[in-house]
Amino acid sequence: MQLKRYSTTDLERLLSSLTEAGDSYLTIYVEPGFFPQYIVDLKLEPEWQVLVDGVKVAVAQEAVVVAAEKYGTGAAIFWSEGADKYLIIPPFPLGENRISTGVPDISPIKAVLKRKYLLGVALVAWGSYALGVFNGDRLVDCKIGTGYIHKRHRKGGRSERRFARRTEEQKKDFLRKVANRLDERFGSLVLDYIFFGGNRLILKPLVRECRYLQSNAAKLSSRVLEVRYADREALIRSYGEITTSLVFSF
What we know:
By secondary structure, this protein is an alpha+beta fold. The protein contains nine helices and eleven strands. The strands form two sheets. A six-stranded antiparallel β-sheet has the order 1-11-4-3-2-5, with helices on both faces. Strands 8-7-6-9-10 form a five-stranded mixed β-sheet, sandwiched between helices. Helix 6 crosses helix 7 (200-209). The termini are close together.
């Protein structure tokens, strides 16, 4: 088993090559919430069941389980005896459970890749934030900001406790500020999905402070984007990570 990260362009190229790979493929689409149980319960005609059994072994691999949980978008599986086998976790959710045999059916995943999404992105690290809206691959709106948070005091005793309390208050003030900016920036929009990046410990308290995130929790991706410092450059780079697919080959 091998795992690679594919851009949309590279994945479309791979999918096109699959349609020329023969007519002995089992194609399985599993939407979020049904993976991997849909496959575990799957039974087909005897001539295809041997392929199903191979898929069941693949979806039980720890790396696949972890990736599927991280993305939460379902999976597209292209499986054939004696040919290349792929399990693809797309960047956005698949909309149906679907099975076909013969020539690989790439239409559902291509539709996911081709769709133009309106995305909200919130990158937040302690002391910096970058909020953006992508319409397709274009950054159409952004708000960059900072907030002062005192560094940890190491002298000990009352002084250390006093600075710790001050730091906690500064963090709360910063989160309220970011939450207000999120409500202002995203409040009038009907976003398809929302992505958070930065310090993962910030996400839960930020959601508690932000009305928009609370009311749109179903649109918040389960992924946390890797960001050390939240600025415009990180915001622009985030689109590449958001649209990356994970491809397991067997």
